[in-house]
Design goal:
This protein is an alpha+beta fold. It has two domains: about 100 residues, Double Stranded RNA Binding Domain, CATH 3.30.160.100; about 70 residues, Nucleic acid-binding proteins (OB fold (Dihydrolipoamide Acetyltransferase, E2P)), CATH 2.40.50.140. The strands form two sheets. Strands 5-6-7-9-8 form a five-stranded mixed barrel. The chain has a four-stranded mixed sheet with strand order 1-2-3-4, covered by helices on one side. Helix 1 packs parallel to helix 2. The longest helix is centred in the middle third of the chain and has 23 residues. The model has no long low-confidence stretch (mean pLDDT about 80).
């Protein structure tokens, strides 16, 4: 990211050391996530306390092709944000988590759900050692004989209920089931 970062100091004197640390973290974001188009950072020290130190606030706004992400770090009950470098670390770690989530969603990786994905065997091709599963969310997912656990591939029939784990890694032709487990009709839920 070339000259797209903007750092603003509010209610605090400019510091080259703080600016350098923030630029390091922005560079790290840029290397980790190719989605970063721009970054704005505001450093504030709004409360001057007599008995305790100043609590710093870091606001970050990152522009990506998918929208703008923002983090605002208000000091909580913890006095950790009396240290500007801890405040910077916490704010940028929160931004990394947001960017990681956005990257996973944009790459098509499904979010993990609490209940496993289910479906029914739609088609079997024993000569090719594979088949297809019609999932409850409306997709048709390929699976190979080696993905079937708890029962052998040869015991599956069209219409059997299964739970499955969908994997996109290593699949040139799209998503496939990395794990297929036959389940009883009583455990099958025909809705996403």
């Amino acid at each position: 990211m070339e000259n797209i970062a903007q750092i603003t100091f509010k209610d605090i004197d400019h510091s080259d050391a703080i600016e350098a640390r923030i630029n390091e973290r922005i560079d790290k974001l840029d290397k980790m996530f190719d989605l970063v188009l721009g970054c704005k950072v505001w450093i504030q020290a709004p409360h001057r306390r007599h008995k305790k130190g100043t609590h710093y606030i870091i606001d970050i706004e990152v522009l990506t092709p998918l929208g703008t992400l923002s983090v605002d770090r208000e000091p909580g009950d913890v006095n950790a944000h009396e240290d500007i470098y801890v405040t910077i670390r916490d704010a940028f770690n929160a931004m990394e988590r947001q960017l990681r989530k956005q990257k996973e969603q944009s790459s098509g990786r499904p979010e993990e759900s609490l209940s496993p994905l289910q479906g029914t065997v739609e088609r079997l091709e024993p000569k090719k050692d594979c088949g297809h599963i019609a999932t409850t969310d409306g997709r048709l997912i390929y699976f190979h004989r080696n993905a079937v656990i708890d029962e052998s591939f040869d015991e599956l029939k069209v219409g059997d209920a299964v739970s499955l784990v969908v994997d996109r890694e290593g699949a040139e032709d799209g998503p496939h089931a990395s794990t297929v487990r036959p389940i009883s009709k009583h455990r099958f839920v025909n809705q996403p």
